[in-house]
Specification:
The chain is α+β, with helices and mostly antiparallel strands. The chain has 2 domains: 3-201, Alpha-lytic protease prodomain-like, CATH 1.20.1510.10; 208-293, Alpha-Beta Plaits (2-Layer Sandwich), CATH 3.30.70.1350. It contains 8 helices and 4 strands. The chain has a 4-stranded mixed β-sheet, with helices on one face. Strand 2 (239-248), helix 8 (254-271) and strand 3 form a beta-alpha-beta unit. The chain is elongated.
């Protein structure tokens, strides 16, 4: 199992532990807000399982049916997680409305709040690890899982403050109102996650800073060529696909043109890890006099 796979599996273990702690907090307090927090943790576990499966599949090498690899499967996991977040938000909103219409007294058991604090701390540490590792290794599934957990942490902090105030002040209405705010926050997180993941499935271009690195590599290491144009990029999980046309003098030999391509490819792969570069060679009469000028 790869390091990425181990981290994805760790998310399942962490999710189960946090779910147990948050449900225990709900049993001790009877708070509908803490119940909504526990319900979101159920989604966390399901999403962690989906992320683990996606990461495992994306690590498979390219084959005859998938010559570009299996990297995009991580986007499907991210879309699924976004959909699950939306379902959780609607379930929480329903419970919050029921508690608002028919409020129930809270049990001022501070053990429940303490357990929820511990669960939130575990989630906070784990989401920091997931997002950091996911960004370094360009794993959409791990980043999505980490961002979901971060939303959970923010919601939990708000819930803990509100439930504490409800117990101290006796304003029971704070409990369902906070649960409703949690639902709204989760809805926003789920929508953002789905739209970003769909962008990956639709072959959205690489970020501007990555495109600038590619342009600089071509311009600096393309000595002997004239220009490059029609640069295209797209992401598929951690892999960045790059292709463009490189214009060279008409009399240049294939071997010399190939050497230039090798230099450019090495430079791009050094600046943009896990990139796959395709270069189309054209003679100087095909120059468009725009795009990337070779220094």
């Amino acid at each position: 199992m790869t390091t990425t796979g181990k981290i994805a599996f760790g998310s399942i273990v962490v999710g189960v532990v946090v779910l147990g702690l948050k449900y225990l907090a709900y049993l001790w307090t009877g708070s509908i807000a803490l119940y909504s927090d526990a319900l979101e943790s159920v989604i966390n576990v399901v999403a962690a399982v989906a992320a683990f499966i996606a990461v495992s599949l994306s690590a498979k090498p390219a084959d005859r049916n998938h010559p570009y690899g299996h990297h995009k499967v991580e986007y499907f996991a991210a879309v699924l997680e976004g959909a699950l977040i939306l379902i959780a938000a609607l379930s929480i909103a329903r419970e919050a409305w029921g508690a608002y219409v028919d409020p129930k007294p809270l049990n001022a058991d501070w053990r429940g709040l303490a357990v929820n604090v511990a669960a939130s701390a575990i989630n906070g540490l784990w989401c920091w690890l997931l997002i950091g590792y996911g960004r370094r290794n360009r794993s959409p599934a791990l980043i999505a899982d980490g961002r979901h957990l971060l939303t959970d942490v923010v919601s939990s902090v708000g819930v803990l403050i509100g439930v504490g105030l409800a117990v101290v002040t006796g304003w029971q209405v704070l409990d369902p109102l906070l649960a409703g705010l949690v639902a709204i926050n989760i809805l926003w997180s789920g929508w953002s996650l789905v739209t970003e993941s769909v962008g990956g499935l639709m072959d959205a271009a690489a970020a501007p800073d990555i495109q600038e690195k590619i342009r600089k590599a071509v311009s600096t290491h393309g000595e002997g060529a004239i220009e490059a144009h029609d640069l295209r990029t797209r992401h598929a999980g951690r892999v960045t696909f790059v292709d463009f046309h490189l214009v060279v003098p008409g009399g240049m030999t294939v071997s010399d043109a190939h050497d230039i391509c090798d230099r450019i490819e090495d430079a791009i792969e050094a600046d943009v890890p896990d990139s796959i570069v395709t270069i189309h060679i054209e003679p100087e009469e095909k120059a468009k006099h725009h795009g990337i000028v070779v220094l």
